[in-house]
Design a protein that fits this description.
The protein has one domain (about 5-175): Uracil-DNA Glycosylase, subunit E (3-Layer(aba) Sandwich). The strands form 3 sheets. It has a 4-stranded parallel beta sheet, sandwiched between helices. Strands 2-4 form a two-stranded parallel ribbon. A two-stranded antiparallel ribbon has the order 6-8. About 45% of the residues lie in helices and about 15% in strands. It has helices at about 15-25, 35-40, 45-55, 55-60, 80-90, 100-115, 145-160, and strands spanning about 5, 10, 60-65, 70, 95-100, 125-130, 130-135, 170-175. The chain contains 7 helices and 8 strands.
Length: about 180
Amino acid sequence: MKILAFLQNQWFKNPDRARRALAAAEADGYRDAWPRRLLFAGCITGRRLKSALGEDLCRQIIWENASPQIAGKASECFKPDPAHMLAAIRKHRPQIILLFGKVAQQGWFEVIDHPTPPATPADQVIIPAANILHAPHPAARGKGVIERLLLLGSEIRQRIELDSRTAPGTADLPIGRQVPA
């Protein structure tokens, strides 16, 4: 089962260097590995995800950001880029989408509120609404973050086990096409 997760955006102490490294990774065809490799290189977000979801599940997930922009400090946050998110969804064609934090959730709502018609029928992706899962950003402060991440891990494992793509009562949500009211 393919799982695509969106965080907000990456940040680095030297964002220009990171942008050059990302450009090189894209040129070499390693763009998809970039977020995962850096996410689990020791930052608090990666440590909390590994702790809550487990290494095996973290390896199975395709990691992406709601904004492709790279920040220069942890407090810097960019608006989501729904076109970027939609491109990732169309490319990876996941059965489950994970939205970590308010920025990723806002980006998702922008994707479904202002759909872009698919260029071809092959571009249309249908994901059961029950398989759009959200949780706080792993680095968020506050009560219940770790507990919610642990619960999310259980929910993901249940969906993998049941493969609930067509579970009874689940409304399919076409991505890239207006949903009839």
